[in-house]
Write a structure and sequence with these properties.
By secondary structure, the protein is mainly beta. It contains no helices and eleven strands. The N and C termini lie far apart (about 40 Å).
């Protein structure tokens, strides 16, 4: 079982920045994908960015030039630095982990990001 604990959400003005962090604890039993998704009100959950188990980065087009994801494999953490935030970035951001062994998917509890003046 894996637990994901997120931190760093909040309210920010357009153009501002926030940093989200996620720490995994428990047993992943080998390589895993880890990263972030988000869900805006009335919309489906969508990919923000994830690092795959072999180190590749999958990301949505909307993050280019604004968001940066980083991962610390030794600490089982992943962070998302979000700059130049826009109102349309308002959503609940979820940490995501998927294990290669067993194919299990875990989600964090979600952290609210609100971009508003």
């Amino acid at each position: 079982q894996v637990q994901l604990v997120e931190s760093g959400g909040g309210l920010v003005q357009p153009g501002g920045s926030l940093r989200l962090s996620c720490a995994a604890s428990g047993s992943t039993y080998g390589p895993y994908t880890m990263g972030w998704y988000r869900q805006a009100p009335g919309k489906q959950r969508e990919l923000v960015a994830v690092f795959t188990a072999d180190g590749n980065l999958n990301y949505a087009a909307f993050i280019k030039g604004r968001f940066n994801i980083s991962r610390d494999n030794a600490k089982d953490t992943v962070s998302l630095q979000m700059d130049s935030l826009k109102p349309e970035d308002t959503a609940v951001y979820y940490c995501h982990l998927h294990t290669n062994v067993g194919g299990r998917t875990y989600w964090g509890q979600g952290t609210q990001v609100t971009v508003s003046s």
